[in-house]
Design a protein that fits this description.
The complex is a heterodimer of chains A (367) and B (307). With 367 residues, chain A is mainly alpha-helical. In chain A, 73% of the residues lie in helices and 0% in strands. In chain A, helix 8 (183-194) packs antiparallel against helix 9 and helix 11 runs antiparallel to helix 12. The longest helix of chain A is centred in the middle third of the chain and has 37 residues, at 127-163. Chain B is mostly helical. Chain B is 79% helix and 0% strand. Chain B is globular and about 85 Å long. The N and C termini of chain B lie close together (11 Å). Classes of the chains: A mainly alpha (367), B mainly alpha (307). At the A-B interface, helix 1, helix 8, helix 13, helix 15 and helix 16 of A face helix 1, helix 6, helix 7, helix 10 and helix 11 of B.
Chain lengths: 367, 307
Amino acid sequence: MTTEHDEVLPAGARAAEEYSHDIVAHELHDLESVGGDETAHTGLTHRGRASRTVRFRGLLRELWHDKAGLFGVCFLLLLVFVAVFAPLLAPHDPHQQSLTERLLPPFWGDGGSWTYPLGTDGLGRDVLSRLMYGARISLFVGVAVVAVAGTFGVVMGLLAGYRGGRTDRIVMRTVDTQIAFPGLLIAILLASLIGPSVRTVIIVLSINGWMIYARMARGVVLSVKETAYVEAAEIIGCRPKRVMFKHILPNLAAPLSTLAVLEFARIVLAEAALSYLGVGVKRTDISWGLDVANGQDFIFNSWWLVVMPGIAISLTVLSVNLVASWLRIVSDPSEREKRFAATQKLAKLAKKLQRQDVSAARETSRA
Amino acid sequence: MGAFIVRRIGQGLFVVFAATVVVFLVTRLFTDPVDFILPLEATEAERAAREAELGFDRPIIVQFGDYLTDVVRLDFGESLWQPGRSTMEIVAQTLPKTLQLVAAGMTLAVVLAVPIGMIAALRPGGILDRALVTLSLIGLSMPQFFVGLMLIIVFAVQLQWLPVGGYGGLDHLVLPAIALALPALGRLTMVVRSAMIDELNSQYVRAAKAKGMARRLVVGKHAFRNAGVQVLTMSGWEITRALAGFTVVVEKVFAWPGFGLFALEAIQRRDLFLLSTIVLVASVLVVVVNVIVDILYKWIDPRITLS
């Protein structure tokens, strides 16, 4: 990343740079260890596939040791399950109003019952059922925005890094400028003009978040552009498109996965914020952020209307962050050191892990 | 240094110009402003008359030129919600309150994050470190509005120590400032911790320790000074984040009459001009903070040469 464009970065851009730099750094490490062996990227050979299953088993073992990461993965799996099967699992219709059963407390509260385990809201709707359906919008918006912004950002970053020259200057200047914008305010402005809907939220947050992917993709491209296998591909006459997507793109897998997970957390929070402010999803949609906004009117007597969806958002984002930090520790040796440095007890654990690694390696060679 | 500052300010001006263009295009292209101004039952003639009066019937380039000259003369137009008042007047009235909130919240976050992050970094992997990291992660995972409402439930509704919201003395500022600070505190603590661990593992710190320097001095003087650069960058990032929209959420929760709350009000009252002015002022603020941070950055770390 040493073109003239990087000389003077605005502070915000630099912070984002550091954020993505961390992720790029371990990719470089990976490259060194692989030593330009292309099969490791494509996994096409038999050997590649075998080592991949071992790596997968290694990941699971790491996950078992990282209890926080394990919690994150389990909670997210549960959440996906609930979101997919919400109509089967939810005890009530989330839209069903019941004026005689308004503002019932959760089951442990005074007057609460198991009919409405987490109570009812100001219109007598079941809070638990709404939480279950609310998971759908949160997860869907998160996945959709990561997909849209990620695809666009990565393509722009690949183009900028690979083509260089004027394309690079235009793309990166746009990225720098947009990063220096008041992002959420412009998102609010745009969303209020388009009108509330799930589609609006996805559009607005994608416009808001593609830059970081472009920055990261460009960094990786610049670091692998000069390697032997990319040059070899160019020499045998591969078209730029093929070089970009077949030879350079696979290098993005590791850093991109960590970045996408972190961005997912950010977007779940942003969707909740937009919906809370009333410019996100439609009034009739079921969203955690919207439920908090509705519950705010009853904050003096019916705290659960704010607390339940609030906890749902917090736990979701926390789980995603725990998974992200687990991914980073797995893939970045310096991060691992930070976690396991100093204390002797942990040094012992490290030795034990090493021994397990050795035995795993033996297993591999036997296989 | 002088050349750097001039160049950096030039870049900042470009960002402000770009923001002006974006705000103008977005408000003109995505909707017809007259839809916002007139009631739905207005006749075609009424619409055309109003359109001509506001100049929306001219080509977009001409409109943009006019808009730019007005902005350069610091004339941001009249508010539709409060006719007779210029939008700038409303922003000037609400801006200090937002700045007050951001200053209080960010001071709180930085002042707490530095010692907490340093303590965590002293023994990475220890019980204290793990506890602090977990707490930081929880802090940065909670939506700002949820933090705010929880604070209201506990300290205003249950304990009744502090007011629920609104603008007033110091007691009104406490809860919104904490709500604004908490997620930033979580993120900053992680940054301070990570930067300090890097510095504490570096050669020069080992050398200082080996020659028998007091631990307090090694940590406080050597390591922290160098970690400080990263901390400064991230603190600036947090301030711009807050200005770039996150105060809106906190101001809504606590009914704090800053420009964020007025931006939401402008959306509800369909006051396009006020909303545009607020977004513009916010982008100027973000640029100013970025420029200041950059200048401080070069000043603190002169190794970064100008090319």
